[in-house]
Amino acid sequence: MYALIGITGKVGGSTARALLNDGDRVRGIVRNTATAVAWRAAGVELSVADMTDAAALEAGLRGVEGAFVMIPPNFAPADGFPETRAIVAALRKAISAARPPKVVYLSSVGAHQKSGLGLITQLHILEEELGSLAIPSAFLRAAWFMENYQWDVDPARERGEIDAFLSPVDRAIPMVATQDIGRLAAKTLQQEWDGNRVLELEGPARYSPLDAAAAFSRLLNRHVIAKSVPRGEWAALFEKQGMVPDRTKPRIEMLDGFNSGWIDFERSGAEHVSGRRTLEEVLQEGLRR
Q: Please, what CATH class does the domain formed by 2-287 belong to?
């Protein structure tokens, strides 16, 4: 049996499906069983734990062949990332006590850097704190999620444009589908290794806002453009979207890191893997919803 944190999300769900399809047993560690009724019906054992409750996390991680661990996304963290530090401290205590034979962690492209990461700093903290445990660990550094473009479905369909924060609009960066992340996470859990591994994962090609707009154009059968949003307008736009005014800096710093090329894969000492799903396939799936 494998224990999975985040089973109700896209990456954790994809990991669970890949394992179940291979005939493996799965235990989902969830904060609320009401959100995981479908997983229980699919034969998944459920264990309830808040992400800062080390004792409950330990119980969910005990007696398994391996664990998939991720921290909940936080797009508006407080200064110093106290929320992430509390979660990582609880995870460290729980994993140290439960001693799963191996752990696969969801990390991010760029997480090896110590500064200039913005939101990705949360994954750097995870790697720094949990990479020192004497347990075989694999840090899966995933590229920018292709599914992020699903937020642009309505403006593409209704206005024929998508907002571009990557600059210039033809800047292509590594992106990956969450299904490919789950597939690799499951495959890695089924392997045996010693020490720490770093797996860098991106899709079959790198994509830019122009590529996304072109894909939308083909799928919607209408002309869609990528409209560059001036950097000076980012904070106000993010606040309009609901972000707390004094918490936009990490998101802006992350985008600056991608635009400068600072946030990219380490390559040295890492296993580099290419996924199968294209951006157009992911967008087409989003348009069906």
A: alpha beta
Residue in 98, 104, 92 with CA at minimum distance from that of residue 132: 92
- Nearest CA to 27 among 50, 55, 4? 4
Identify the CA nearest to 20 among candidates 36, 37, 35, 4: 4
d(CA 205, CA 171): 13
pLDDT, position 106: 98
Domain regions of the chain by residue span = 2-287
The amino acid present at 11, given as its one-letter code, is V
- Find residue 272's DSSP bridge partners: 200
Query: How much of the chain is in helix, strand and coil states, percent to nearest 5?
Result: 45, 20, 35
Residue 164 β-bridge partners: 228
Amino acid 122: pLDDT: 98
What are 22's two structure tokens? 């291979």
User: pLDDT of 85-142, one tens digit each?
Assistant: 999 999 999 999 999 999 999 999 999 999 999 999 999 999 999 999 999 999 999 9
- Other CB atoms within a 10 A radius of the CB of residue 127 amount to 20
Is the distance from CB of 138 to CB of 186 less than 8 angstroms?
no
